[in-house]
Amino acid sequence: MQAAELFEQKIKPSEVARRLRVSPKSAYQWHQLWRAGGVQALASRGPSGSRCRLSPRCLEKLAVYLDEGPAAHGWVEDQVWTASRVATLIGRKFHVSYSVSGATRLMHRLGFSPQVPARRVAERDDQAVTAWKEATWAEVKGSGRRAGATSASRTRQASRDGRPEDVRGAGAASPRS
Predict the structure, then answer these.
(1) Residue 14 predicted with pLDDT over 70
(2) pTM of this prediction?
(3) Is the pLDDT of residue 50 over 70?
(4) SS3 for the chain, per residue?
């Protein structure tokens, strides 16, 4: 509403843009709306974008389903909710199609975040990991480049010995006529 007050004081849109730290284009659009409809034309119409396709009751149910864990809904191989799994769950339980990115936004809205395991898996064999790092990784990694002078260019520096005498180079002076 600051813009409307400034427009009422006959301040130009470019100055309004400077004072409110917005783009001149926005200020000119606001000025046009203000001239056509007054202060009410500049009032917020609420958040943009599409409305949530799940009712508040369905959102509550979804939060309960997510708290139950993936195994309760058929994903027994691990206990991690992925956005893809949540989108599938929404389709199964509510018969509403959500994209993976839409399911991610919905999870954040419900207070859930991407899951990362808090600890290592119980089946981890630290001795096998150490043995692999010492034997296999050293072999795969390779020795790398040998130490010495390096160059960013693959070409060799030209030698004067290999250059014919009768060919003029870039540095040679040419006679002018």
Answers:
(1) yes
(2) 0.45
(3) yes
(4) CHHHHHHHCCCCHHHHHHHHCCCHHHHHHHHHHHHHHCHHHHCCCCCCCCCCCCCHHHHHHHHHHHHHCHHHHCCCCCCCCCHHHHHHHHHHHHCCCCCHHHHHHHHHHCCCCCCCCCCCCCCCCHHHHHHHHHHHHHHHHCCCCCCCCCCCCCCCCCCHHHCCCCCCCCCCCCCCC
